[in-house]
Amino acid sequence: LLLGVLGAPALGDPGPLEDVVIDRYYIPKICLREAQMGDFIRYHYNGTFKDGKKFDSSYDRGATVAGVVGVGRLITGMDRGLQGMCVNERRHLIVPPHLGYGSIGVAGLIPPDATLYFDVVMLDIWNKNDKLQITTLSKPERCNRTVENSDFVRYHYNGTLLDGTPFDSSYSKGSTYDTYVGTGWLIKGMDQGLLGMCAGEKRSIIIPPFLAYGEKGYGTVIPPQASLVFSVLLVDFHNPKDGVFLEHLEVPESCKRRAVTGDFVRYHYNGTLMDGTLFDSSYSRNQTYNTYIGKGYIIPGMDQGLQGVCVGEHRRVVIPPHLAYGENGAGDKIPGSAVLIFDVHIIDFHNPADPVEIETVFRPEGCNVTTRHRDFVRYHYNCSLLDGTRLFSSHDYEKPQEVTLGANKVIEGLNSGLLDMCAGERRVLIVPPHLGHGESGARGVPGSAVLRFEVELISMEEGVPEGYLFIWHGDPPANLYEQMDLNKDGGIPAEEFSTFIKTQVAEGKGRLMPSSDPEKVIADMFRNQDRNQDGKITPDELKLKSDEDQEKIHEEL
Questions:
Q1: Is the pLDDT of residue 11 over 90?
Q2: For 35-40, what is the mean pLDDT?
Q3: Exposed (0-12), middle (13-18) or buried (19+): which is 42, by Cβ within 10 Å?
Q4: How far, in Å, CA of 453 to CA of 431, rounded?
Q5: Same domain, 494 and 523
Q6: Which of 391, 381, 388 minimizes the C-alpha distance to 415?
Q7: Catalytic residue numbers?
């Protein structure tokens, strides 16, 4: 078509053109808008004569041409030829003399009655009545809050001119653009275009020049009167007045106690930025995070966010940067001014002043005899963490657990929980770590863990005072040695000693220290009395424990 138009005069001149000849030799697939009379446009062009000689070019000047189309500010032929163009459309225009510079021409540049040839590309179109054009490209399903004036936003963007020419990108800088909205720190169009966005939302924002950089443009990258196109991803936002936001994802039906300042809490967490980027997780370390709350050991937002939690609760804690890591961020994973989201699961908590918590599940009727210090008890138990994790159980073995209360053979909390029980009684014990396995824990027990015991007392035997293996129910015989020397040979071997002690127990005159192995207790007694270890006890060697204790007192005095 172009060749035909340009070649027509050579095929027998048909005469002067009556109107502009337009050749739309490139039309973009997408044309959102066509230039109309009164629109402001920006374009590049080359102007030549019929013989190809150039008389003018915006490219040579290094600047686009900007003006209003259809209102007589351009030569008539150009005014007509530019109307209806799309951004990025290219046209060849042939302008006859009477629609160009006529019989006068332009001195030294365009001769009289010259036909002009223009090669034009449209770069920008806008109108003073234009408004911001916002297109939502994607939006999260959950959006609890949107951007308002005075919020502080962090976003990524690609900035282009209307023809697609890029002029700036936050991605190329490797960091978000961070600023306040509605306070004049941004161009007006961006101030307006960010309002109502959700964290994670993507928008295309087309800003007309009078809401952008206007007649002056910006540096060498944004020409005067340029419309701007921003593709924006809102990473996060907050307001300086924000406090901690809590979302209770799952709260146990039974919550007898809630954490307060001074409590020691063990919890798991996933920490993410508002766009979902994971920056830390206790699960990845397979270890809970353990700390006191309300004492400044953790960031202020988490100190506040853990107040009032229940054991087993799942809670989301959203923390603004001024209650987290502020403008500086932390390391290479938490940017400056980042909002943090913690999804928390409370495993347990306690207070250093907590006693053992005892709940009686079943107590037999007629319970007159209860366990005391130094009693020997047999009991069954199940031990777990407060989140239900099973640790140990006596049911895994052939017989119940056996222990002398107060002999430091079990943790202090369990020992306390077994006191004042009746045979057949069942209890639930909650044992804080300072009465359990402490900060270090034990094999299979995490450090600082609160333990839950389900205990059932099977049987009990009255104990003896600490340090005693046998006690008399009354006064011992005055002639103890003679009675113990059954064959009257002046020496008491182990067999005679054992027979005598068993007889005293059988007749109710005394009792052994309770044990699952009475023979061993008697053997220990004999060994203590056989002071020279010659296999028999002599009159000089035999002494009552009470007499020995009295001798020690005199020695100290």
A1: no
A2: 95
A3: buried
A4: 8
A5: yes
A6: 381
A7: 45, 55-56, 75, 101, 118
